[in-house]
Structures are given as structure tokens and as C-alpha cells.
Amino acid sequence: MPPNPTACIIVIGNEILSGRTQDANINFIARRLGVMGITLQEVRVIPDIARTIVATLTEMRARVDHVFTTGGIGPTHDDITSACVAEAMGVPWEIHPESFALLEAHFGTENFNAARQRMAMLPRGATPIRNSVSLAPGYSIGNIHVMAGVPKIMQAMFDELAPTLEGGSPVQSRSWFAFDLFEGALAAGFEAIAEQHPELDLGSYPFHRPDGRRGVALVCKGTDIARLDHAAAQVKMLIADLGATPIEGEPPL
Amino acid sequence: MPPNPTACIIVIGNEILSGRTQDANINFIARRLGVMGITLQEVRVIPDIARTIVATLTEMRARVDHVFTTGGIGPTHDDITSACVAEAMGVPWEIHPESFALLEAHFGTENFNAARQRMAMLPRGATPIRNSVSLAPGYSIGNIHVMAGVPKIMQAMFDELAPTLEGGSPVQSRSWFAFDLFEGALAAGFEAIAEQHPELDLGSYPFHRPDGRRGVALVCKGTDIARLDHAAAQVKMLIADLGATPIEGEPPL
User: In chain B, what residues touch A216 (CB-CB under 8 Å)?
Assistant: First the structure.
């Protein structure tokens, strides 16, 4: 099997860095990429500063198969993603006639002001991501996929985009957890299981809820189902051997 | 006024990249840094891969005043943050006697196994971040601050750490929003306001709730209160001039 394609997400937005907004896009895209068999290698959250956006795009598009960006494609002065993508790709940023016509028809000629006309400017060679929710100008160019920051619009764009991307082997997951079990008690046994399955990703995740419930979840991830089931059975037995009650799935919130 | 100190967050964890876990630490740290007058320049989410962690630490610690990491400091095989910090700092990763004694007293000698002893290993020269919630080995070394990934523990560590950091001018915020107002209508007026206040960060944030309520929030951020109040008054007037009803604060969820 060839290795799965790789991806990164670049979240463009001062509002995430200032703490105004809790990002919801990373988790949505991460889950969807897992199902598609595309490995999310890195996420960067960067400010609305042109040189930072261009440098980050340039670095990451050379390093992964797919770069997904969110944010900065609206009509206001702080929406500079598209101009930066054009610069990173070395192409002009120009009126995209089809998008111009769609936006003009939507807003009506008298309301199609300069700010809205700016939304019809795309890097030359971009393929728009049409969607049912918004006329916001998402698009793909090369291996860069430019999406809105508003989660509802981003999700509609991703739904359109996903079938056009070549995926890999879907990553599956098996989880067992136990209350009142702690990592220090299981670390040696868990490492021994991990060493038997180098092609899987085995992680242990302690939880500590505000109401005082504590414990640990042991998660096996990978693309080989037989291996995964084998490792999960070993994990279940490890928990039981330590005197705790293994419960299948993820711990309750 | 000297410029505010700068920071980045490095989130270390496959569980964020796989979508298993919705990160909650970025938003917490971002808000707290804003109040302290420390500018969060970038966030990176990276996997539990040693060469990636070392490279990211090495790059970012040269670029910002403070590097905050979350995750990867537990006792299991996938907890490799501390060894990587030691490598990035060029110091040995070794038993920290005081932490060793505290952990041994906590677990009792018979339960203080190899995995738990590993938690007492810190980069040479590290200063532990003691806290009331956990004995997990958070610490500062140079300009790197290493914290747990579990939000409750990370927050307790940050509370201890924050008073030891030199801050800058706190970033304050003024927000107005309106329903059924759209960015394309206000972009020109909003840009004109932004141009009058180059030292402020003015952003417009459309919202689109699942129940259909839509609109836009206009947010002014900065350290100069008089400027901020001036810009906010202009923003309020802009919204009213466009025929919408300006409402102070952030839009309801």
C-alpha cells in the first residue's frame, strides 16, 4: 500500500490568536481527513499579516500533499488570504469572470460595490468551490484549498471539495477506557503492546472532568483492521489485568 | 511604550491532529496572554514525532519571547516532549532530584515504577511549575514553558506561571454587532475607520448560527484606550448609518 496523502491546515485569523473565537474548523477537518485516509501532519494558526501568510503557504505547500486554509476570504480590509495565495503561487490576483457574474446577479448591480467586487478576485487558475450555503469565494489552486472561516460555510465547502481529493486508507480507531486508572500504572504494559504494532498509533489520554471523574483512555489508530482489533484486545486485557474495568469507546464528557 | 512581548503555542499531540480531541488550551492561553499584554503570534499543532518537536521548538524559541507547549509530559511511551526540549536546548535530560522525591512520596516507593520515575526527568536547568492540581512535570527552561495537555492541569500550571512572566500593555477590546448586516455593505466604511487607527486591530466577523440568525460583529482591539473608544464610537455610527441597529458586545451563540 502506498503511504496515505498528507495535509496541513492553515488557520488565518487574528480572532483565534486573540482568543476572541474558539476555533471549530480544525477538529471538523481533522476528523474528515482521517476518514478519507489523508494524514493531517500539522496545523498552523497565523495572523492576518501578508508576509506571514505568504511564507507559511510557500513552506507548507512544498511539504504536504494538500494545504487547507480557513479564513480571510470576505470583502473587508482584513481579508487578504486570496491576494497572498496568488503571491505564493506566483500568479496574478484578478477578476474571475464567472464568480463576478454570479456575485453581481446575487447582490444586484446597484449593490455590487467595490468591496463585493473584490470577492470576485481570485488567483489566476483557481477553480471555485461552489456550495449551497454561500457565494463566498472558496477555491482550489494547485494543492492549496482556500475555504471560509465561518464554520457553516467552511463545512459546505469541504463537503464539495472532499469528493475531488484522492484519499488513502481510512484511519480507524479502537478505544478502551477505565475510571480511576492512571497512566503511570499502565505505561510499561502499554508500551509493550505499542512495540508489537509499530504500524499503529497507540496513545493514552488521561481525563479529569470538572466533577472529579478521572481515568485514562487508551486509543489505537491505524489502517490495518486485523492489527487494530488485535491491539485493542490486548489493551482491554491490560486494563483488566490492572484491576480496572475496561469500557469500550471514549470516556463521557 | 516598548512593543509587547511575543509568544507562540506549540500543541504537541496526535489526538488533536486525528480529530479525537477538540483542543481547549489554545483559546484559554490566548485570552490570558491578551490580558497580560503578550502578543500571541502563532500556534502550531504538531504530532508526537521527536524530530518535528525539536525542529519546531528550535525555530520558534528563536523567533518569539515565550514558547508555551502543551501535551506530551506524562509517563507513557508517547510522552516525549521533555526529551525533545532537552535536545532543542542542548542540555541533558536527567533526573530532577526534587521532583523525584516529590513523586516518590506521592506514589509510595513500591508504586514508583520506571514509568513514573521517567516523569521526574527534566532538561538540566529546568524550573518546575508546581501547582495544586497535579504533580505532572511542567517547567520552564529558557523561554520555553512546558505544560500538560489535560486542560484542568494546564490551567493550574498557567496560573502559577503567569505571575512570573513580564507582560506588556494589556490588549483591550470593543465590539459592536448587528443582525442582518453584511460585510459587503460595511467594508468601505470600516476600512476608512481602520485607516485612521493604524495602531489598532480592527476586524469584522460574520456570524451565521444554526438557527438562521446572521449578522456581523465589528471588533476593535488595542492597548490605547482613548483610541479604542474613539474607533468604537465610529464603528457604532457606521452600523447605524447603514440602517442597522448597533448592539454592544459580542453576538449571542
Answer: none
- Per the rule left: phi > 0, alpha: psi between -120 and 50, beta: everything else, A216 is beta
The partner residue sitting opposite B203, judged by closest CB among A78, A210, A219, is A78
Helix axes A183-196 and A225-241, enclosed angle (nearest 10): 150
Percent of chain A with pLDDT over 70: 100
Which chain A residue shows the shortest CA-CA distance from B186? A76
pLDDT in tens, A192-209: 999 999 999 999 999 888
For residues A192 and A161, is the Cβ–Cβ distance under 8 A? no
Q: Are strands A39-46 and A6-12 parallel, antiparallel or unpaired?
A: parallel
Nearest-Cα distance to chain A for B92, in Å, is: 23
- State whether B74 and A183 contact (CB < 8 Å): yes
Which CATH code, of 3.60.70.12, 3.40.50.2020, 3.90.1150.10, 3.30.70.600, is assigned to B172-248? 3.30.70.600
Query: Quick one: DSSP state of residue B231?
Result: H
Q: Which of B23, B45, B205 sits opposite A42 (nearest CB)?
A: B45
Count of Cβ atoms closer than 10 Å to residue B108 Cβ = 8
**Distance to chain B for A48, nearest Cα, Å:** 10
Instruction: Please state, in angstroms and as integers, the Cα–Cα distance from residue A153 to each residue in A25, A74, B31, B158, following that order.
Output: 10, 12, 26, 34
ipTM entry = 0.94
Asked whether A26 and B17 are in contact (CB, 8 A), the reply is no
Q: What pTM was estimated for this model as a whole?
A: 0.95
CATH number of A6-164: 3.40.980.10
Local structure of residue B3 (DSSP, 8 states):
P
Domain ranges in chain A are: 6-164, 172-248
Contacts of B201 in chain A (CB under 8 A): 14, 18
Q: What chain B residue is nearest to A16 in terms of C-alpha separation? A: B27
In tens, the pLDDT along B120-177 reads 999 999 999 988 888 888 999 999 999 999 999 999 999 999 999 999 999 999 999 9
Q: Which amino acid is at A224?
A: D
